[in-house]
Known about the structure:
Elements: E1 3-16, H1 17-27, E2 31-33, E3 39-47, H2 52-58, E4 63-72, E5 80-89, E6 92-101, H3 102-111, H4 120-131, E7 135-149, E8 156-166, E9 179-180, E10 186-193, H5 199-207, H6 217-225, H7 231-249
Antiparallel strand pairs: 1-6, 1-10, 2-7, 3-4, 3-7, 4-5, 5-6, 7-8, 8-9, 8-10
Amino acid sequence: MAQAVFNRYEKKYLMxxxxxxxxxxxxxxxxTEDEYGKxxxxxxxxxxxxxxxxxxxxxxxxxxxxxxLRSYGIPxxxxxxxxxxxxxxxxxxxxxxxxxxxxxxYDYVEQGIRPKEDSQILREMDFxxxxxxxxxxxxxxxxxxxLFGNEDKNFRVTFDMNIRSRKEYxxxxxxxxxxxxxxxxxxxxxxxxxxxxxLWFTKILSELQIFPASFSKYGNFYKxxxxxxxxxNMMVHREExxxxxxxxxx
Length: 250
C-alpha cells in the first residue's frame, strides 16, 4: 500500500488577477511550474452528521484534524485515489495519506471494509474512524497551478482558482461541477515550506503588499450555508487591514 507523510508550515494569501499576474512574473526567476500545469483537484470531506469536525476547525483550536478523499481529475471507481488525514498542531501541518482505489476507499470509510494491505497510517485511520461516525460532508474541487523552488524543491507555492462545491451527488466519480465560493478572477495562494521561508519570497510579498489570510475552503463553504460568509465584505475588511499595514510600514 503506497503511503506518504508530509510535515510543513502553510500560509494562505487571497489575491485578485492583477496581483496574481504581477506575482507570477516576479516568481518566475526563482520558481518553476510543475509538470502537471493547471490541473483539477477533487475532494470529499468527511464529517459527523452534526458537522463536529468543521465546527471545531472554525474555532481555530491549537489542534485540529480532518479526513478527506482526494483525486486528481475525475476518477472511476477503479482509479487510484488518496485517503488523507490532515492534522494541524501549533501551526505545523501534518498530512498522512494512503493510496487506494476509489471503490476500496468508499468501502473502508463508509462500510468499515478494511483494505487487505496493512500500514501504520491505515491503523491511525482505524483509530480516527473508531472515534467518529462519519458521512460525506462536502464535495469540493478547484483548479490548481503549482510551483516549486529552483534551489529548494521542497518549497512550493500553489494557486487555487474556481473553488467550487456541492452537497448533492457527492461522489468523486460524479464530475467536478459545483457552486463557486469566490468570484472568477480571484486566487487563493498557499506557500508550503518544511523549514524557513526563503528571504526572496518574503521580500516579493512585502514589495507587492501581499499579506497572509485566514481562509479555509471547507470552513467558508460551511459558513456560506448559514449566510455567515460574505466575500465582498471580507475583501473590504482586508483592504482596511492592508491600508493599516501600509501606514505602519511607511
